[in-house]
Amino acid sequence: GGEYGTSATYLSEMASSGRRGFYSSFQYVTLVAGQLVALGVQIILQNVLSEADMISWGWRIPFVIGAIGALSVLWLRRTMDESEQFSKMDSESRENAGTIKALMKHPKAVLTVIGLTLGGTVAFYTYTTYLQKFMVNSVGLDKGVVSWINFCALLVFVVIQPIAGMLSDKIGRRPLLMSFGILGTLLTVPLFLFMKQAHNPVMAFLLMTIGLIIVTGYTSINAIVKAELFPTEIRALGVGLPYGLTVAIFGGTAEFIALWLKSIGHESLFFFYVAGCIAISFIVYWRMGESSKDSYIESELKTDDKDDSIPPNNVSF
Fold first, then answer.
1. Domain of 127?
2. Could you identify which of 18, 62, 146, 259 might form a hypothetical disulfide with 135, taking C-beta atoms 3.0 to 4.6 angstroms apart as the criterion?
3. Alpha-carbon distance 8 to 225, whole Å?
C-alpha cells in the first residue's frame, strides 16, 4: 500500500506505448497475490494449529513472512533502473520533483484521483477482506470453507487483471471504469442480499467472483489512469498522496462501518453505502475524458522524440 504511488508510476513509465494498460494491471496481480499468500498461510495454520494456538502465537507467523518479503523488496529496489521519463527530466523539473507546491498546480487531477479511488477502494476492500467476515458472521459458513472460497475467487481475480488491462489498451480506459461504475452501483445490493442466503459454498464462490469481476473494471487499470494524469516530476506524489488518503479514510474504514451497522441491526445499510460510493465515482468516470488520449506519459515521450530529431545549431549538412 505504501508503495502504490511509486509502483503505479514505475510500471506505467517502463511499459511500452500501447501496452501500458496491460503492464500496469500487474500491480493488482501482485497485490492480490499477496492476499493469496496470506490466505494460503491462513489455510495451512488453520489445519495445523488449534484455535488456542492460533490466538496465542500463530497469528505472528504471517508477520515474520512479511518481514522477509520487506527485505526482498529492499534488495529489488537497489537493482532497479530509472525510467526513461525520469532520466530525461531537466534540472528545473528535478528541483521541483515531488513537492506539494508542484502538485498544487494540478488540483483537477488530484480531485480526479480522489474521485476515481473512492468507489474502487470501498468496493475492493468490501469484496475481498470484509466479505470473508460477512460469510462467517452473516451467512454462517465455516471459517475453513470461507478461506477456500476466498482463495479460489481471488485466484480468478488475479488471472483476469491482465486480460482487462490488455482490453483497455484496445478500447480505452474509460469503458472499463464506466462498466465498474454502472454494474457496481446497480448490483452491489442484490449481490449481498443473495449472498446472505447463499449457504451453499459453490453459490457463495460464484457471487463473490461476480463481484470481483465487476471490481476488475477499476482495479486492472486504476494505476495507469492515475499515472496518465500527471507530469513526470510529480507523478508518484500525484498518484500516491490523494490515493493513500482516500484509501485510509474510505477503504480502511469499510469494515468498521460494516461491522458497526451490523452491531446496531442495520447491516443492509452498508450495502447501500458501498453502492453509493461507487455511484459517486461513476459520476467522475462519466465526466472525465479518455486518459490514454490525453496521457502526460505519451505526450512527454513524443516531445522528447521531437526534440531529439532536431539537430544542434552548429551541425551542418
1. 4-48+105-289
2. 146
3. 9
> Distance between CA atoms of 180 and 169, rounded to whole angstroms?
17
In a domain, 98, yes or no: no
92 lies in a domain?
Answer: no
C-alpha span between 197 and 44 (Å, rounded): 28
- Residues 82 and 163: their CA atoms lie apart, in Å, by 27
Model confidence over 104-120: pLDDT tens digits?
888 999 999 999 999 99
Question: How many domains would you assign to the chain?
Answer: 1
Dump pLDDT digits (tens) for 63-92. Answer: 998 899 889 888 888 887 776 666 666 665
Of 112, 131, 103, 115, the C-alpha closest to 250 is: 115
Q: Give Cα 211 distance to the centre of its chain.
A: 15
Handedness of CA 89, 228, 221, 259 (dihedral sign): positive
C-alpha cell at 153: 475467487
What residue type is assigned to position 47 of the chain? N
Give the CATH number of the domain where residue 218 resides.
1.20.1250.20
